[in-house]
Amino acid sequence: MKKLTFTIIFLLSQAFLLAQTEDSCLPNGITFYTQEQIDNFQTNYPGCTEIEGDVAIEGDITSLAGLNVLTSIGGNLRIGADPDQYSYGYTLLENLSGLDNLTTIAGDFHLGRNLSLTKLTGLENLNFIGGDFHIGFRYHYYNSLGWWWQIHGNALTILTGLENLNHIGGDLAIMYNGSLTEPTALENLTNIGGSIMIRNNNSLTSLAGLDNLSNIGGDLVIMANDSLTELMTLSNMNSLEGSLHIGMVHITDDWEDITDEKDCYTLGNPSLTSLNGLESLISIGGSLGLAGNNSLTNLAGLENLTSIGGEVLLIDNASLTSLTELNNLISIGGNLSFGYLEWWPNYFQGNVLNNLSGLENLTSIGGDLQIDRNDSLVNLTGLENLTSIGGGLILGRWSGNSSLASLSGLNNLASLGDYLSIEKNDVLADLSGLESLNSIGAYLSIANNSSMTSLTGINNLASIGDSLLIENNEALVNLSGMENLVSIGENLKIYNNDAITSLVGLDNIEAGSITDLYIENNNSLSTCAVQSVCDYLVAPNGTIEIHDNAPGCNNPGEVEEACLYISIPEINGKPKFNIYPSPVGDFATLSFEGKEPGTSKVILYNSTGIKVKTWKFIITENGQNNLVMDLSTLPPGMYCCRMQVGDVVMMRKLIKQ
Which of 3.30.70.670, 2.60.40.2550, 1.10.8.50, 3.40.50.2000 is the CATH number of 577-656? Predict the structure, then answer.
């Protein structure tokens, strides 16, 4: 009886342990370092078919046959190097036979540094990866010598074995597989939850195998694939929630160490001749980047693209001559950049476009329009329907656009939310093409344009939100074309313009809108006594630097003296306002031409800003009105006369003998 009882208890305990093993198999995961561990797996873990934790396999392992009972992994599966730390992990596997019953990986699947792995046979039943699937990767790390990375590729030539994979919840990365010719066997993939990165597969000639891919939840990045010639197999992709990058800009992580081209370069696809295959793509939620694709001559394949939510960057595409295939593009949410990079630009090239035809339906740009380093670009035709730019407009900055002769194409641009920078355009003679522009949200910089002789074309500009800078335009003779500018938000700077003789054209800027005034090193500039400058010198708001110009404009005193003799025409409806004689004696006559009856107030200040006299009088009729001012009690010296008629304020200097 006791023996029977013991036997029953023993059998029950074994059944309980077996049930416990089946229900809770390795919740903390397991790492296989030796072939012996693989071979003994079923002995050491009887009944274990579903591992709940992570699985890692690395070392001198040549076969996974001992794992043929596995059906699912609840965590990550890593075969080879560790993607999350500096690692010399590897395997000697030639294929993945032994994982034949594996259907599900709930976490990530990483394959890296499997130097004998030529194919993925053994994964034929795998249909679900809940996280990322990385076929090759790199680990980024920092030491005392700077930033480095470990590259962990594989010897794969094909992806045979993945025919039943239909779900990837995270990213798909195919990287550093130098012998891989095409990603065949992925035909059942229709959706990717995250991004796709295909880079540094030097033998990859096509993307055959991605034929049924229709939606990508993140970005699509295709870069540094030296043999890739076409994208035809992406023809079913109609939605991209993230960005599309065909080639990318690389800038070293150690920014303080940038010295030459080895630190900054583009990672393009040098054999790619066409974007055909992207015809179904209608919208891009993120950005569009085309960089370093030196065989790409046009954008055929993007004919149906209507909107881009982020920025567009076209840089270092040495053969790109046409944008005509973008003729359905209506809006860009971020910047539109042709050849421009804000940081370390001298290590990159622009494009060989000679115009922007193809952008005729583009009506709005949410960010900046940036055009630099496009030495074949002669005009901006193609932008005729662009009416507003939410950010700024850069027309040359770092190296300019050496053939840009006309701004035609911007004729309907009315406003800029940010700055306007026109710099280093060697053959640009004037600003014709900007006739509709009436406001700039930030600064206006016109600099280093060696052939610019006038500012004609910007005649309707009324306001600038920040500084006005006109610098190093050696052929600029005058500032005619800016007569309608009445307000700037900060500084007025006129520097190093050798041929300019007069500031006429800036007459109408309200002096109160100028913060600091800089007029320097303009060798021929002798006439600075225009109304805006004269009014500012009466009541300055900040720093005054006037020097190293021609006689008459060599210091503030010379300009102030010239201001006493300027003729005051009627400007923008303001009444004419003069004081005579000049200099005055005990009496002076203030003469002004009124537009309608009203009240006028005249205040006289001495040179220290103290109010010394006030007059009020009623304007009874239109036309000429005169006020005789008794100055007999005042000592000789310089005075400022301020006259207000309604909302109009005018100021003049006078000298009493």
Answer: 2.60.40.2550
